[in-house]
Amino acid sequence: MRYADFGPHDIVLLLNGLGVSLTLFLTTSLVGVVLGALLAVVRYYRVLVARELVTFVTEMLKNSPVLVQLFLVFFGIPALFKIDVTPFEAAFFTLALNTAAFVYVIVVSAVESIDREQIEAGRVFGLTRWQVLRHVIAPQAVAFATGPLTALLVNQLQVTSLISVIGVVDLTKVGDILNMRTLKPFIVWTVVGVLYYLAAKIIALAGGFVERRLTAHSAWKGL
Amino acid sequence: MRAGRSIALTTARDAVETEIGFTRTVAGLNLIVSDLAPHIALLAQGALLTVEVCVLALAGAVVVGAAIAMMRASGSRLLRGIATVYVDIFRNIPFLVQLFFFYYGLPELGIYVDAFATGVLALSIAGGAFASDVIRSGILAIDPGIVEAAQVYGLSRRTTFLKIVMPIALRLSVRPLGSVLINLILTSSILSTITLNELTGSAKIVASQTFRPFEVYAVLLLAYASLTYLLSIAIARFHRRLNRGVLEAV
Amino acid sequence: MIRIENLKKAFGKVTVLDGIDLSIEPGEVVSILGSSGSGKSTLIRCINGLERIDAGRITVDDFDVSNPKELAEARKRSGTVFQLFNLYPHLSALRNVTLAPVEVLKRNAAEAEKEGRALLESVGLGDRADAYPAQLSGGQRQRVGICRALAMKPRYLLLDEVTSALDPEMTAEVLEILADLTGRGTTMIFVTHEVAFARSISDRIVFLDQGRLLVDLPCETFFAEDGGMANARVAQFLSKMRKD
Known about the structure:
Chain A has eight helices and no strands. By secondary structure, chain A is an all-alpha fold. Chain B is mainly α. Chain B has a single domain (about 5-250), classed as MetI-like fold, CATH 1.10.3720.10. Chain B has helices at about 30-35, 40-70, 75-90, 95-110, 115-140, 145-150, 155-170, 175-190, 200-210, 215-240, 245-250; strands spanning about 5-10, 20. The N and C termini of chain B lie far apart (about 55 Å). With about 240 residues, chain C is of the alpha/beta class. Helices cover about 40% and strands about 25% of the residues of chain C. Chains in contact: A-B, B-C. Chains A and B meet through helix 3, helix 6, helix 7 and helix 8 of A and helix 4, helix 8, helix 9 and helix 10 of B. Chain C: Pfam families: ABC_tran (PF00005). Chain C: InterPro entries: AAA+_ATPase, ABC_ATPase_HisP-typ, ABC_transporter-like_ATP-bd, ABC_transporter-like_CS, MetN_ABC_transporter-like, P-loop_NTPase. Chain C: Its main location: membrane. Chain C: It is found in: Cell membrane.
């Protein structure tokens, strides 16, 4: 290698990688949170079989390595269905589903944390199921779930590093490339680690901020 | 290992197995079974390696976690600070990055250890950050009166910690430490990226040899999920048995 | 001898002990009476060094409990039995008894075990030596607690409301053992609500009220109309205790 040492372009490379990591993190988190919450609502409406199916799939996703899930989607699905799946697509699909599985569990337990009497009272006063969900359950569940959700998202950011294994050029993959080129593992992986660390701290701070606002708002409810 | 089936295929790429048989005639589940059967031994070896890595890493994580928990409970500001930073760092940086740090970094320091040792080390260090939280809450759950009793009978701080606080805290921590173990098992799949052919690593080999990645990874996913599920049940039972009586008295 | 001079102790702004002077001679049985919150338990916790004292001085056989270097010696001379037993939940009854002799007094393990079994035997727990605290009744646990203290062969036994977590039947079995101990010349400082029992075993009664030592009299005098009962607070306390 002729250009073995670090150059200014490496900063661009690192920032690009960070951008890919964060983009995937943010988009899959958004899709995952929405999907997970929707699935929890399906559970609330007691659709036949759906509940068991969702429970089974979420348990599978929660209790198996994300790396294996990535391999299944990236290597398995194209082989079985004879379709092309890019690393980015596979990463997006897997991470979104994985996040959804954890979100589902968090939301379900948040809903279950709400007093049954409140829900029954709402129904007694003639509110529809949807109105109860909208005005009684949702606000409290959101406040209850923010803490666990923040912890989950901090974790999911770290999980994104696995997509480098199937070839997405995220922050970790950039680290890998720089490591191979410069042969300075301590510097490379420390810098990469610091970037991940800072991103995790920002997520945690944001989550804490949201949680404080939500609980301050609902404090009078005795939450 | 050899099933002696219809076609023998030689692959140049995969060094471990040069000859494998596979059938393309039967459909459905049968196909998965007959295709994977010749590779069960390899997968079993991988599973065994996963178990070995995780058992060692759990032991390492508990030792590291106990040390960190002890530091966090200590009177020294410096020790408490170090422990807090340790937990913060290793919980907020992806394991893959930590793993590469050690895998590529240790040889730079003149420490040449194999992927197995590196994996156990990295898992112990990362697991220790989680275990320390668990053990810390175990320590905090102990009735202060029990520690006072040890004090008035003249037990040294060291003895009190080793013979009273730690044993009780670890007993109380069995179930949450079980969750740490399950996490270690799932995380250990990442060791396949540093050439360690544990369960996921060996499945990768099988997938490329059989050209049936979907079946292989689906089975692998099921295997991990059932393994961790059964383990969590066993841990919950063990926790109840070990703490029969201890819990209510604490 | 345990000597307490001008002891003061406050928790935040609340003064719990306010200038206590008290000496206890070897061989004495002293009961400390007083209503809840009078500072009785805190006094015990100051003597065994569990609470840091704010002012004054406590010495156990001339070892100052406020001095970290002397505290260990002071503690070796006294044994504490706790209200809520505070047994080590992960150790058998026998190991609860032998742990400190082996670890602190560096006694031979087999020897300590033999003595521990004998102690448990003497309180009627010979067959429960290998049971864990959770497998024992409250009364049995407290008897183990007493054995744990006695195993250190203390000169002074500090008993902090040792029966108040027990029902009457269990209280009786524990008191029986304590009465037996007084007959053997063990020095005891007995914080209690059991007025009748205190009267039957004590040489001296000390009465605390709002952190002050109000009355310190020989047992008989304390319960005499012209003795302790002449003090209005004592009379009030005793009449209240009788009603209960």
